[in-house]
Amino acid sequence: MACTAGGPHTCAPAGYSANHAAVSQLGYCSVVVNYRGSSGFGQDSIVSLLGKVGVNDVQDVQTAAIKAMSELNIDPAKVFIHGGSHGGFLCAHGIGQFPTFYRAACIRNPVINLAGMGLHIAFLFAYFGILH
Length: 132
Prior knowledge:
Largest sheet: 4 strands, parallel
Distance between the termini: 36 Å
Oligomer: single chain
Structural class: alpha/beta
Order of helices and strands: EHEHHEHEH
């Protein structure tokens, strides 16, 4: 199970998670990814995501999932992805960009319609790298 943190300017803590403990008891492996742009890696990491949203962050999640599958001998027929907010955005991109890789997705409150959220158009252009 690939777990994507929300944000993008937040991070998943390296500590106990009741949710991950519960899915572990059910026999699942959780890979929690702090992708490029997550806080905790410094300002350069955060800035590196500007103009590359849906590219660098999605690739980081995919790379982590592939690495976990390889090292932990995970059945490819049992790989799924979940996340909320920006993590939900990453899930939507994950199943869109890699449609045969993930068998299921749990997408909570995805940020997939920024214009509908009332964000200023100049912010959207800068965030997605349309304006420099």
